[in-house]
Design a protein that fits this description.
Elements (H helix, E strand, L loop, with lengths): L1 H5 L6 H29 L4 H10 L5 H8 L12 H11 L4
Helix pairs in contact: 2-5, 4-5
């Protein structure tokens, strides 16, 4: 058993569940990020805000997206941090 858990890639049920939840959350955020980009593109000050986003430090970009409301999905009251992170990756690619 020690060999199986150490080198065989075996995991406990709790570890497998945690990994599955993380992967599912990341997948959902990746699918919702384009909605965030659409909301950004609808912003009348998008050119200025994109410049501000690009000028912001890497550590504060997701927070900036959340404050703009772009990462707050329809029907939700608060922004989603994982969506904001995924959205930032798409927004910094916009020229």
């Amino acid at each position: 058993m020690i060999v199986g858990f150490t080198w065989g890639g075996w995991v406990t049920g709790g570890t497998a569940k945690a990994a599955a939840e993380t992967l599912a959350g990341d997948a959902v955020a990746k699918r919702l990020a384009p909605i965030c980009v659409v909301r950004f593109k609808a912003d009348p000050d998008k050119v200025l805000k994109l410049k501000e986003l690009n000028d912001a430090s890497t550590w504060t970009r997701a927070e900036y997206v959340q404050k703009q409301g772009w990462a707050t999905m329809p029907g939700e009251e608060a922004p989603d941090s994982k969506v904001a992170d995924a959205c930032v990756k798409l927004l910094v690619e916009i020229k």
